[in-house]
Amino acid sequence: MSIQRRAFLATVGSSAGVGLAGCLSGDDQGGEAGISGTTLTLTTTTSTYDTGLLDEINLPFEERYGVTVDTVSQGTGAALETARSGDSDVVMVHARSQEDEFLQDGYGMNRRDIMFNDFVVVGDSDDPAGIGGGEDAVEAFQAIADSEELFVSRGDNSGTHTKELELWDEAGVAVEESGDWYVDGGGGMGEILTEADMQGGYTLADRGTYISMQGDIALEIHVEGPIEDGPELLANPYGIVAVNPEVHDNVEYDLAMAYIGYITSPEAQEIIEEYTIEDERLFFPEALSEDPNFQQYVPEEWTGGDGE
Q1: Range of the domain at 130
Q2: 1 contacts: CB under 8 Å, gap ≥ 6
Q3: With contact defined as beta carbons under 8 Å apart, do 242 and 40 qualify?
Q4: How many domains are there within the chain?
Q5: Crossing angle, helix 253-263 and helix 53-65, to 10 degrees?
Q6: What angle do CA 220, 4, 98 make, to 5 degrees?
Q7: Over the chain, what is the mean pLDDT?
Q8: At which of 214, 234, 254 does a domain end?
Q9: pLDDT tens digits for 80-105?
Q10: On the chain, which terminus has fewer CB atoms closer than 10 Å, C or N?
């Protein structure tokens, strides 16, 4: 995915009615929108929750339809597993390979791109591995491993952990055989940043959570992602997927589709566009474009039919 921000449609109507087209009940022609269900269970990543973004996004949706969005903050792997069990109506995550598996196994449908930011490699200001200012994330990971400087991992099958393992694999480092320098933190992004800060170690973080915690930790960015002209390998796209009601008939599918329509509407995309902490943007909207990406709806490797 190119991290260059797609053209954002700034024309915001008085409501998200356009984005919700086809998601509402047939009895609401010309009147107040109506949807079945009173509570939407959204499983999502710790990064979208910890940054406070979802509070801003969800409030207009809740007020308009008189419903509650019950947000469950988990790593991507856990969020998708909750959905597989039928305990979630819609999933917002950031590991495309795991999203694709979820779709291919029949648990999800109607996937959409929402937004993006990027990953950054952060660490103590002393930078004992000497990776600061580098433009190659893989080389930075190799340097950390070669110097055996402390690295704190999410270790939780989250989207960030998935990207971290991809980087170790590219670097040719078998972290499962590493020594004491590699620490399995096993927590959310905020917890891992706090632990890395306390121990003076390195970690991989999404830019949004790092910015939201910047005033509370002393960690510095040593390798930038593509938002600041770093490697495209550190791109961090977010997607949303409804749980398939044919697999779990208990899910609030109508409500999930209304939410997907809303979050990809001009109204919610503008909220994402304008959401900042200390005047720094955390996420960049991606749902709307003059040149739509139709690959977003299906697994990236899917070609249709028998693949021929």
Answers
A1: 119-234
A2: 116, 235, 237
A3: no
A4: 2
A5: 120
A6: 75
A7: 88
A8: 234
A9: 999 999 999 999 999 999 999 999 99
A10: C
